[in-house]
Amino acid sequence: MSRFRQIPRFLTALLTCIALAPVAMAQEPAKTAQPPATKSAEPAAKPATQDPAPVQVPAANTEAAPAVAPSSAPAPSTNTPSAPPQQESLLLWIYKAEGIFFFPQLFMSIGLVAMIVLYSMQVGRKEFMPLDFLDGMENLTKEKKYQEAYDLSKSNNSLIGRLLTAGVVRLQTSGGQYPQALEAMQEVGEDEGMKFDHRLSYLAMLANIATMVGLLGTVWGMVAAFMVIAQSDTSPKPSELATGVSQALVTTVWGLLQAIPAIVAHTVIKNRISRMMLETGITAERLLSRFQSLTKPSKSASSATTTTGPSI
């Protein structure tokens, strides 16, 4: 009977265990989950306790980053080739180097070139002895067409035409005096030669002025360079002295480039004028000698004048 009495107790204990088993199983995950929570809370707590150290480490990294960036920035620039400097035009460089002497020397260069070209065109054979005029005068004088020859020489503007016109006019007005006709031609020739000399004198004057301006630029530039040295307490930089030295040298070079061609052109043109004047004078004298037959009286006319002269 005692055993049967113990069975309800056993069943009640078993039922109690069965009833409490789900509760115990439900509480075990929570208990098991609590340790990770505590573990995760511990790292969270640790950073909370170690807050100053981790905060300073990122700050140090952020401050070091800009310091490394500038040092690493020039590295690509050293590898990449640098762009070549832009070259100035020669005229602009000369303008900067010349300074106040640029425009005077520029105008003188233009004037010299214009004079050389103009005078070279004025000393051609066409201006002294045109070939067509010489051929026409030769044919007309051989055919003894003196009036047509005189009209041709009068209408021609060349030097030989003016010489023949003056000689023939003086030959007619002087009563056939050939020496006076030659003097008239010489007067015209000297007048024309003086005109050429006056024109060439301006070319020679510009050549001398170009040389003097170049010398003035040399002295001016050296004075400017020495003024820089005198006004500086320490030794001046080469770039500061280069302005005055470049002005001195460039002005001198430009002046010589103007003067040398001008002197050569002046000598060549002057010698050509002298040669052409001589040839023109010889040819004009030869053609004028053919007009002497106009002033020589015939024998019948001279005998008539002698017979009638005494009767009067």
Give a written overview of the molecule.
With 312 residues, the protein is mainly alpha-helical. The protein is built from twelve helices and no strands. It has helices spanning 2-49, 52-72, 74-79, 90-98, 102-122, 125-128, 131-142, 146-155, 159-173, 178-231, 238-288, 299-311. Helix 7 packs antiparallel against helix 8 (146-155). The longest helix has 54 residues, at 178-231. The termini are far apart.
The ordered string of helix (H) and strand (E) elements is: HHHHHHHHHHHH
Rg over CA atoms: 58 Å
Largest β sheet strand count, sense and barrel closure:
none
- Give the overall form: elongated
Assign the structural class, choosing from mainly alpha, mainly beta, alpha/beta, alpha+beta, or little secondary structure: mainly alpha
Query: Quick check: average pLDDT?
Result: 75
Beta-strand residue percentage = under 5%
| Count of distinct strands | 0
- Detail the poorly predicted runs: 1-7, 21-75, 298-312
Helix segment tally: 12
Can you tag this structure with a few keywords?
elongated, mainly alpha, 312 residues, disordered C terminus, disordered N terminus, 12 helices
Blueprint (SSEs and pairs):
Elements: H1 2-49, H2 52-72, H3 74-79, H4 90-98, H5 102-122, H6 125-128, H7 131-142, H8 146-155, H9 159-173, H10 178-231, H11 238-288, H12 299-311
Helix pairs in contact: 4-11, 5-10, 5-11, 7-8, 8-9, 9-10, 9-11, 10-11
Give a concise summary.
The chain is mainly alpha-helical and 312 residues long.
